[in-house]
TrEMBL record:
Its EC number is 3.4.19.12. Residues 1-24, 716-773, 1256-1319 are annotated as: Disordered. This is ubiquitinyl hydrolase 1. Gene3D superfamilies: Cysteine proteinases. Keywords: Hydrolase, Protease, Thiol protease, Ubl conjugation pathway.
């Protein structure tokens, strides 16, 4: 019978050791089993208390029954241990069995410093005499099996009373005297005498060396203790194994126990051994209670605690050093206990215990995070605070945070008696949001996000992030009882009433956009683009109202109109604002035509980079992809990855580290697969004729999934790698033109050797359509034909000079739509969770480069055994750390290699040089007390210098993670001479002088901050606060005088206090003035510090920006096009120029809207135009759209399709299609048609019939080869196999359905829109 694996929370081995010593199985209340249960009482106010009569155990080891772990032996898969103990107080027996049979790398080890035991309830057992509890170590490489067995005392209370009752002993003594009145030396036996003599008899019986195995039943001591002939105690003696015959008692002679490890304690010998220990315990208790002499007092009772530690591998763990007079409260103990830890755990072990608990019991993750927060606040250590901050930045939310979030809306924490719907919570949020300040609104959104995470509600999370992604989200946001059947007019009315603020307006429009796409409603679409439901231009009154102008047009001062327009564009950017401006300009005669602002200008495809559409939570990934594409060497590595990748036919592993660790063969393959997806995206960004590209779902998923999860992706599930042999024909059609083409290079041939079949499997977008179907439908059982020679992604594949015949291909596995969909959903579920939790561009960047490097060839190995490769050479920085001792001597510099310079979180406004100084200047040494360590950069420096500026840190005031929005002033030209000691002889001496000045400057700035931030809630500095307080006290004194005149007692304040406060305020104001003067003087000293050192010059090329808080936000990137000397902003699908006047938003971003720079990239000045080339476009001609297909014999032109006017629809809101336009698709083809207006072509002996277009230029007509059937016949499967591999026939234009062919029925040709939806 199979049993489920262990699950739920666990305990570390030291915690289990502590619980074992304190657990009394005889005094266990229901639901309060200290040893076996996980008591989650922390923070609930109900702490477990000791029950009356609980034993404070004094265990000692029963060595003869134990198999203890040797001190110098590490366990392996053949190891098992047993520890048997007995309590001196209650005579309880316990045995600890631990078995490593399943272990490959037992704990403790480098990854798991302690055992973490989970309960195995199905292995528990209970009987009248014993209880068994079972656990298993949660470490997959250990899985040590643990059982603790408790046994009741062998020596019952009745037996003890039989031997120790003084009245019975007196009667036995008197009976012995009566039997032999003149017997000498007979004395009354004491209770301890009786117990001691029985103990010695048993010990002699257990000793195989004891020769004398019997004694006389008339022995005077025996008679006094056990009665005449032992008759009073004969039943007990016989039960213990004594035998009476012929006036003698024979000692017990139990057989030896052959296997002590597996013995269950039920043997005769083990019972007698236990009785010996219990008799000693009884004698000790009698001595304590009565003061009687203990005959066994010379025998010690050593504690078994150390043996329990050794058996559980709990000894020698790292302990926390507590400050003097620091005690852990009982409530704090409960938080440690919840984590399965002890209060003396070092911070590292507290982290380990927390990580194990959330890994084993993810449902209670919020509860464990609360415990970690409380422990972090109690200890106030940097390590735990950093851990809490990192978890909060990853989206972890504690139970108390959730409780606080509910209280923000006046709600109780949900329970079995209190339940809320998502709609109720959202309505409460919206009601409160309407009348609060922006700061409070941000807090409410953060609270809503936390509630949404705790409920796993995408509706609440999207509402908190001000995003609407699904129909349910849209309906929930609009509220007012709207539902899927609500009429469009009512939806518009509700939407109009909710557009009170810019944020609400944008969110409301997003909601209507989602509903418009779902309903395919032109009415809602028209309202989005015009603000009206009946179409037409915006009226002047509507325009003025939209811009917030109260005067009539005739009353306006026309000279200030342009300023009002500029203000409106900043406050309400978007199409509506531009239409309003146009309406006012036309009415006032100030403009002859409508001109879009620079950011809205359209660009020719070949002259402007493409944008990248987000998949919902991937704005930071889009920013990274734009960065990668803009760096020419990076882009070329990806596009030519086939030349640089590791040949898996030659080797399947790497012996060297990548990212500081050894990687698996699966990671190598996964990296190459990720590179292939990235290569496809870059090719699309080059040839895409439109202004935007949506990265494929699989590529986005691979950016967040681990390599071992790639198999879940639909493209991986449908990949069939076919190695193209030179025996394969050049083309299926045998076209002679193919043989005339130029041969590819060997590198191209290698990169094209593996062909991915069924490529449409990965064209499904990350977001599902509103009706639950994927954007691109999958066709069952028909493999997609090979890509044609003209396809840019497979260029040159058929140019190879190959023989005419190919060997037959083996049958291929066919995947059903359900299989593909299931694989896709599984992968996306994991990827989306990681994407939603991800907030750090640098982490995604590290993961992406790690994946790419994993698949690259090794160009060498550095001294740290790290792989050197073509990608790493672009950005790896050599840094040396030099320790300066207290006596002024310096140790030998230590080298480290870094992918970027890691700045500290800027908590006050600063500049880039100051931030670099802060991390490269001397820091206190962690190893040598009193020493300091400074860092220097080694030449040659990499061509690309990456600088990470994290923004999330621990806030000591709020005791929580906080995003710091301090301004970071960037420089366009960065000179690094000052940090390279070998760049000049005087550099180091100049640096040292600067260190002294900067130390003084930081001390002054710290003091100034303390004086300025004394009362931050009142926005008062210290001097002003004391001045106001003094003035208030004087005012109170005046009131006291008035009260005294009325005969009422006042407050009797000391006027000297008010005077003292004002004197102190004056002194602090003078000190603040002095500090400001000293700061300015030091800055003047530092300003010309390195004016002479300007040889190593870098230019700012890329800046990543983030707007938001710790719960979420938005990323975008700005990139400098040096060749054209312009900056562009890449904001998902929108790529706009940053005007010269707005460059300050990049170099000195301030405020929420401008965001904060989080990652900067500088490039070497002399190579800047070679390194940074954002513009790399060779757009293909755009496909004509929309298309109408008609029968070739039709004599009338199709009706023109309705199409929205260009420039009237926001691309973020509308997908560009008119849903109400009908499309006619006829499956009939007539090769012999001579219809006027249709041209019959013959290419390579094959009939071609043109498809007439509904719109677009005449040269956009596309030709469809005759498939070999008439309008009365069905195509053969062979004809279907010969269908050209062109986007016209798959993905963009048509899908073939093989089922109709197999059933000999005419094919159904289904036309699709550009987004894959059927029309």
């Amino acid at each position: 019978m199979s049993h489920p694996p262990p699950s739920g929370p666990g305990k570390t081995s030291p915690k289990l050791h502590d619980d074992f010593l304190n657990f009394d199985p005889n005094k266990t209340a229901p639901g309060r089993n200290l040893l076996a249960d996980h008591l989650q009482s922390a923070g609930d106010g109900v702490q477990p208390v000791a029950l009356s009569g609980e034993c404070k155990h004094e265990y000692t080891t029963k060595h003869v029954q134990s198999i203890l772990p040797p001190l110098d032996l590490r366990p392996d898969g053949t190891t098992a241990y047993k520890l048997a103990v007995v309590c001196k107080r209650c005579r309880l027996h316990a045995a600890i069995h631990i078995d490593y049979a399943l272990a490959t790398n037992p704990c403790p080890n480098q990854q798991y410093p302690l055992h973490h035991f989970q309960r195995l309830h199905h292995e528990d057992g209970m009987s009248p005499t014993h209880i068994t509890y079972a656990w298993q170590c949660s470490a997959s490489q250990c899985q040590a099996s643990l059982r603790i067995i408790y046994n009741t005392p062998r020596f019952s209370d009745q037996d003890r009373l039989l031997l120790t009752d003084t009245d019975r002993l007196k009667r036995r003594y008197e009976a012995a005297l009566d039997a032999k009145p003149g017997r000498e030396d007979l004395r009354l036996a004491t209770p301890n005498d009786t117990l001691n003599w029985l103990r010695k008899y048993i010990q002699d019986g257990l000793d195989p060396q004891q020769k004398r195995r019997a004694f006389s039943a008339d022995n005077k001591r025996f008679v006094a203790a056990f009665g005449q002939q032992g008759n009073d105690c004969s039943e007990l003696l016989t039960d213990l194994g004594f035998k009476y015959a012929d006036g003698e008692w024979t000692l017990p002679n139990p057989p030896q126990v052959l296997d002590r490890l597996r013995s269950d304690g039920g043997s005769h010998r083990e019972r007698l051994e236990d009785v010996v220990y219990e008799l000693a315990a009884c004698m000790s208790r009698i001595t304590i209670d009565t003061g009687a002499v203990n005959p066994a007092a010379g025998e010690s009772w050593p504690s078994a605690s150390r043996d329990v530690e050794r058996t559980l591998a709990a000894q020698g763990y790292q302990r926390h050093t507590f400050p003097r007079r620091s005690n852990t409260t009982s409530e704090e103990h409960a938080y440690f206990s919840t984590l399965g830890a002890l209060s003396d755990f070092a911070d590292t072990l507290v982290e380990f215990a927390f990580d194990r608990q959330i890994n084993c019991d993810p449902e209670a993750q919020a509860y464990y995070f609360e415990c970690l927060q409380v422990i972090s606040e109690s200890r106030n250590t940097e390590q735990l605070q950093t851990k809490v901050v990192m978890l909060q930045s990853e989206g972890h939310i504690s139970r108390r945070d959730i409780t606080k979030a509910y209280r923000s809306f006046g709600l109780q924490l949900p329970s079995s008696n209190v339940l809320y719907t998502d709609q109720h919570i959202l309505s409460t949020f919206q009601a409160q949001l309407s009348d609060v300040s922006p700061a409070v609104a941000a807090d409410l959104r953060e609270a809503l996000y936390k509630i949404g995470c705790s409920r796993d509600s995408s509706m609440l999370m999207n509402a908190s992030r001000q995003t609407v992604e699904t129909v349910d989200d849209a309906l929930a946001w609009l509220g007012n009882d709207v539902h899927r059947g609500t009429e469009d007019d009512f939806l518009v009315a509700v939407a109009s009433s909710k557009m009170d603020s810019d944020a609400d307006t944008q969110l409301t429009k997003s909601a209507i956009s989602v509903l418009a796409r779902s309903r395919q409603s032109n009415k809602l679409n028209t309202w989005l683009t015009t603000g009206r439901t009946d179409g037409g231009d915006m009226s002047v009154d509507e325009a003025l109202r939209h811009l917030g102008i109260e005067q009539k047009l005739d009353d306006l001062d026309k000279s200030v109109l342009e300023f009002q327009f500029d203000s409106a564009r900043q406050d309400k950017p978007g199409e509506q604002t531009e239409r309003a401006i146009k309406a006012i300009q036309d009415a006032s005669g100030r403009s002859s035509g409508y001109t879009q602002p620079p950011a809205m200008q359209q660009h020719a495809p070949g002259t402007w980079p493409v944008g990248l559409k987000s998949h919902g939570n991937t704005c930071y990934l889009n920013s990274l992809l734009q960065y990668y594409f803009s760096i020419k060497p990076f882009r070329e590595i990806v596009l030519e990855y086939g030349q640089h990748k590791l040949d898996l036919h030659e080797t399947h592993e790497k012996k060297h580290r990548v990212g500081g660790r050894i990687i698996s063969a699966q990671e190598i393959k996964g990296g190459q697969r990720f590179a292939k997806d990235l290569q496809g995206l870059f090719q699309r960004m080059i040839v895409e004729p439109s202004a935007e590209v949506k990265p494929e779902k699989d590529m986005v998923s691979r950016a967040f999934l681990e390599a071992e999860q790639y198999d879940q992706l639909p493209s991986s599930a449908m990949d069939e790698e076919i190695v193209w042999d030179r025996t394969r024909p050049a083309t299926r059609s045998g076209s002679p033109a193919a043989s005339k083409r130029e041969k590819p290079t060997p590198a191209d041939e290698d990169s094209l050797r593996v062909v991915r079949q069924n490529s449409n499997a990965s064209s499904v977008t990350l977001q599902a359509s509103e009706n639950g179907e994927n954007d691109a439908a999958m066709v069952n059982s028909v493999a997609a034909p090979p890509t044609p020679p003209d396809s840019p992604t497979m260029k040159g594949l058929f140019d190879l000079d190959l023989p005419e015949h190919a060997p037959p291909l083996p049958p291929r596995r066919r995947f059903t739509n359900d299989e593909i969909q299931k694989a896709s959903d599984t992968a996306l579920s994991v990827a989306e969770k990681k994407a939603a939790a991800q907030q750090d561009v640098s982490e995604v960047h590290d993961n992406a480069t790690q994946r790419l490097r994993a698949g690259l060839k090794v160009d060498g190995v550095d001294e740290f055994e790290e792989q050197q490769d073509i990608l790493r050479q672009l950005y790896t920085l050599s840094v040396t750390d030099t320790t300066v001792n207290q006596d002024g001597t310096s140790d030998k510099p230590k080298l480290r290699l870094e992918p970027c310079i890691q700045l500290r979180v800027p908590q006050t406004d600063t500049d880039l040089y100051s931030a670099l100084d802060e991390v490269l200047d001397p820091q206190p040494s962690d190893i040598k007390p009193g020493a300091s360590v400074y860092a220097s950069l080694l030449q040659p420096l990499p061509p690309i210098l990456q600088i990470n500026s994290p923004r999330i840190d621990w806030d000591a005031h709020t005791k929580a993670a906080k995003k710091f929005d301090a301004t970071m002033r960037l420089v366009d030209e960065l000179y690094l001479d000052r940090y390279c000691d070998q760049s000049g002889e005087d550099i180091l001496s100049t640096r040292k002088q600067g260190w002294v000045w900067r130390r003084q400057l930081r001390a002054l700035e710290k003091e100034r901050k303390e004086l300025m931030d004394t009362a931050p809630a009142l926005e008062l500095d210290s001097a002003t606060a004391m001045t106001e307080a003094g003035a208030y006290l004087k005012g109170v004194a005046d009131i006291d005088r008035d009260l005294a005149e009325l005969g009422t007692d006042g407050l009797d304040l000391d006027l000297d206090l008010a005077i003292s406060l004002q004197d102190a305020a004056t002194a602090q104001a003078e000190r603040l003035t002095k500090i400001n003067a000293d700061v300015e003087a030091l800055k003047k000293e530092l300003a010309p510090e390195f004016q002479h050192a300007k040889k190593i010059k870098y230019r700012l090329a890329v800046v990543f920006f983030h707007r938001g808080n710790t719960s979420g936000g938005h990323y975008w990137v700005c990139i400098h096009d040096f060749a054209n000397d312009i900056w562009r902003s890449y904001n998902d699908e929108t790529v706009s120029e940053v005007s010269k006047d707005d460059l300050k938003q990049i170099f000195e971003a301030q405020g929420f809207n401008q965001g904060t720079p989080t990652y900067m990239v500088y490039v070497q000045d002399d190579k800047k135009e070679e390194l940074v080339q954002p513009l790399c476009r060779e757009p293909e001609p755009a496909d004509p759209w929309p298309v109408q297909m008609v029968d070739a014999t039709e004599t009338t032109d199709p009706k023109p399709a309705v199409r929205a006017a260009p420039g009237t629809v926001d691309p973020k809101l509308i997908e560009g299609q008119n849903w109400d336009a009908e499309r006619v698709v006829e499956p009939s083809f007539n090769c012999g048609s001579e219809t006027p207006g249709w041209e019959k072509n013959v290419v390579d002996g094959r009939c071609v019939t043109h498809i007439k277009l509904a719109a677009g230029p005449s040269n956009g007509e596309r030709a469809m080869p005759d498939l070999g059937w008439s309008d009365r016949s069905s195509p053969s499967p062979e004809a279907l196999e010969d269908l050209p591999d062109d986007p016209m026939y798959q993905g963009r234009g048509h899908k073939r359905q093989a089922d109709s062919v197999r059933n000999n029925s005419p094919p159904e040709v289904v036309e699709e829109g550009r987004d894959g939806s059927q029309m």
